[in-house]
């Protein structure tokens, strides 16, 4: 059997000609159940791995998922037909170790966690999320790293092919310095993925009109950022958040930039359906305690929203009656 050269995860690799995809995975000591195989830009089903042969010049991508609250009782969050008892969506990136992440997930008790789609590391080493039982959670794969609508759509299709989830968080970077999303590409990707039956949860800026357009495009939830990703600057534009909540008839989940639990509670008090938190937990001095605090904050914020705040007045009103005071 002669050798041929293929491009595997962006790098040339010499393999025997006519090798099946399954045989290639076996040579690489990779379990087929843990990866998605894209062969010449076509996602291969598990049943195709034994019949699809590798030829000279083929392009292959092997990808997998990597790391990118308290229960709500009788008031769950429903997104895309899925019931989530926690209104805290927990990120899985930037943690110092899988053990720390596992302890944060135990402390926060989220129902949904985010995962990113990345090339499989073919050079060995411990995989991200190894040891985390992903079956316990509703997975929200994201298209982080995409800079075009086509790139985001491709990542979404890879995520679905892995068989974990029809949910997808659309992220399309429009500016490398701020990582703010590209409005046009985000809307284009959302429209296409909705047509393909995905449950689309697009990350957007706090632009009210953009949020409306994403809702009109069929997004199952709209995810405006509180501040640029990873900054932990906290809520920068309360007015726009309130306007978005009032203008769209799907859950508004505040994503990116939150720094402390009180900000998460504030989001829920204003009517946001939930929050997504990653950096504020992962980079805290005690991540598990911070995860627990955020889980408690979203419960308190939602309870306050349901209770309804007192009337805001401009004239002081005594809380104790004036009648009967001894003079």
Task: Explain what this protein looks like in three dimensions.
The structure is a single chain. The protein is of the alpha/beta class and 327 residues long. 30% of the residues lie in helices and 20% in strands. The protein contains nine helices and 16 strands. The strands form five sheets. Strands 1, 2, 3, 4, 5, 9 and 10 form a seven-stranded mixed sheet that branches. Strands 8-16-15 form a three-stranded parallel sheet. The longest helix has 21 residues, at 287-307. It is elongated.
Secondary structure topology:
Layout: E1 3-8, E2 11-16, H1 21-27, E3 36-39, E4 42-44, E5 59-66, E6 77-79, E7 82-84, E8 88-90, H2 98-108, E9 112-119, E10 138-142, H3 149-161, E11 167-168, H4 183-195, E12 199-200, E13 203-204, H5 208-216, E14 223-224, H6 238-247, E15 253-255, H7 261-269, E16 274-277, H8 279-282, H9 287-307
Parallel strand pairs: 1-5, 8-16, 9-10, 11-12, 13-14, 15-16
Antiparallel strand pairs: 1-2, 3-4, 3-5, 5-9, 6-7
Helix pairs in contact: 2-9, 3-4, 5-6, 7-9
Oligomer: single chain
Q: CATH superfamily of the largest domain, called what?
A: Aldolase class I
- CA(first)-CA(last) distance: 108 Å
How many domains?
2
User: Could you say what the CATH topology of the largest domain is called?
Assistant: TIM Barrel
Query: What is the total tally of β strands?
Result: 16
Extract low-pLDDT stretches. none
**Class inferred from helices and paired strands:** alpha/beta
Tally of helical segments: 9
Helix content: 25-40%
């Amino acid at each position: 059997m002669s050798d041929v050269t293929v491009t595997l995860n962006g790098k040339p690799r010499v393999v025997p000609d006519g090798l099946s995809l399954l045989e290639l995975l076996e040579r690489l000591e990779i379990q087929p159940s843990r990866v998605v195989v894209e062969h010449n830009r076509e996602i291969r089903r598990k049943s195709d791995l034994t019949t699809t042969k590798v030829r000279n010049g083929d392009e292959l991508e092997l990808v997998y998922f990597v790391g990118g609250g308290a229960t709500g009782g009788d008031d769950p969050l429903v997104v895309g037909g899925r019931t989530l008892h926690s209104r805290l969506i927990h990120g899985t990136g930037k943690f110092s170790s899988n053990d720390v992440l596992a302890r944060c997930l135990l402390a926060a008790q989220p129902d949904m966690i985010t995962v990113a789609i990345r090339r499989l590391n073919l050079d060995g080493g411990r995989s991200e999320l190894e040891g985390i039982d992903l079956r316990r959670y509703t997975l929200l794969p994201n298209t982080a790293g995409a800079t075009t609508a086509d790139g985001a759509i491709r990542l979404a299709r890879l995520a679905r092919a892995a068989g974990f989830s029809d949910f997808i968080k659309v992220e399309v970077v429009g500016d490398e310095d701020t990582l703010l999303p590209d409005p046009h590409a985000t809307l284009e990707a959302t429209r296409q993925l909705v047509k393909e039956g995905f449950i689309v949860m697009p990350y957007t800026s706090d632009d009210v009109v953009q949020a409306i357009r994403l809702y009109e495009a069929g997004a199952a939830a709209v995810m405006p950022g509180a501040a640029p990703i990873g900054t932990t600057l906290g809520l920068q534009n309360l007015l726009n958040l309130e306007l978005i909540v009032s203008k769209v008839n799907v859950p508004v989940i505040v994503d990116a930039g939150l720094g402390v639990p009180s900000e998460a509670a504030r989001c829920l008090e204003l009517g946001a359906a939930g929050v997504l938190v990653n950096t504020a937990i992962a980079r805290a001095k005690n991540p598990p305690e911070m995860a627990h605090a955020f889980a408690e904050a979203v419960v308190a914020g939602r309870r306050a929203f349901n209770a309804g705040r007192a009337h805001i007045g401009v004239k002081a009103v005594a809380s104790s009656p004036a009648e009967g005071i001894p003079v």
